[in-house]
Amino acid sequence: MSTGFFEGIEPQKFVGPDSKAELGFRHYNPDEVVLGKRMEDHLRFAVAYWHSFAWEGGDPFGGQTLIRPWHPQDDMGRAKMKADVAFEMFEILGAPFYCWHDADIRPEQGIYAENLATLEEITDYLGEKQEASNVELLWGTANMFSHRRWMGGASTNPDPDVFAYAAATVKGCLDATMKLGGHNYVLWGGREGYETLLNTDLSCELDNMGRFLNMVVDYKHKIGFKGAILVEPKPQEPSKHQYDYDAATCIGFLRKYGLENEVKLNLEQGHAILAGHSFEHEIAVAAAEGMLGSIDMNRNDYQSGWDTDQFPNNVPEVALAYYHILKAGGLNSGGTNFDAKIRRQSIDPVDLIASHVGGMDICARGLKAAAAMLEDGGLEAFLAERYAGWSTDGAKAMLNSDLASIQARVLAEGINPEPRSGRQERLENYVNRFV
């Protein structure tokens, strides 16, 4: 049943690259087979509840610009109205998944028992919406960064009562995620970091954060949740120093606390940029360690120094990201969540649809380019040639020897290697043939 919010907007269909229509998919064809798998099953698109429906259009210098009938989000009537509009949009887009924080889907009550009651009520309502549609929950998570109680962190807070409130909140959210058939559960430590070391006990906070995450994993197994537990790296913002800075930092943390076989990573394009990396770098690092779980697709404004969460529009960047995802075997239980928001001046309902359609098309183009590169094999052939020396018996024996033996061999054989070209420009030209 139509809510009227998207009045006049029809479900989006594949219209082909030559269409002049404003809406419609030029490149995303859910049933197109890429590397033996439907495009929809490769990409597993999800809509972010927070940016699309909870965000009111504010920025650090100005307040609300998006006037929605479910704003302010302060009672269950509006929460259910928001859910009605959200599922109508999912159906218009043909998006198979969505994601939420608890604070996106229920009003903030302040008292935990009341927050839990409203979360359970909206969970039942969302369950009904899911049953009436083909939409599933990619992942749920807890917002433990917006309310003032979290200003000193959640699991890393110096106050044990805040740790307790956080633990109770995650339990409730994990229960809700499991009840809704969620494929994953994400923990993003929005304020798990510090502003100054003058008031911070690093070892205490990191140990508590490690213990907290172990509790989450233990509870997952206790209730039989089959989805993956994911953590999401992000540097600097909002804390000056985030403990979950980038993929490598998170992997080191997980290993320190014995979680490397239990927890994977949810990686975001914008967060990679804030950490001084490319998205493909973060994906490749996680994949190399067997910890690639899911992705948040967006982009930052390269002229701004903060997380602008814009929809993707750079095919070469996206293609290289999916190249490493495909090499790693795909996203499995993860997906492509649009952790992206329309601009605060884009106030029309159709802007919500157009932004997602454009992002889905960019990802489809990137996926097809990545698949074509893999099928062509040019990059893999170059890597095999460049590192061929390491497959020889001599190189393998060297790695099992010692410095003195290696020195003796260099002296005896007069080894004096000449540098070989890395061919970067030629490889960049190769990639450009596909994008």
From TrEMBL:
It is found in: Cytoplasm. Its EC number is 5.3.1.5. Its cofactor is Mg(2+). One of its GO terms (cellular component) is cytoplasm. Mg(2+) 2 binds at residues 268, 271, 307, 309. Binds 2 magnesium ions per subunit. It catalyses: alpha-D-xylose = alpha-D-xylulofuranose. SUPFAM superfamilies: Xylose isomerase-like. GO terms for biological process: D-xylose metabolic process. The keyword Magnesium applies. GO terms for molecular function: magnesium ion binding; xylose isomerase activity. Mg(2+) 1 binds at residues 232, 268, 296, 339. The keyword Protein biosynthesis does not apply. NCBIfam families: PRK05474.1, xylose_isom_A. Belongs to the xylose isomerase family. Homotetramer. This is Xylose isomerase. The lineage of its organism: Bacteria, Pseudomonadati, Pseudomonadota, Alphaproteobacteria, Rhodobacterales.
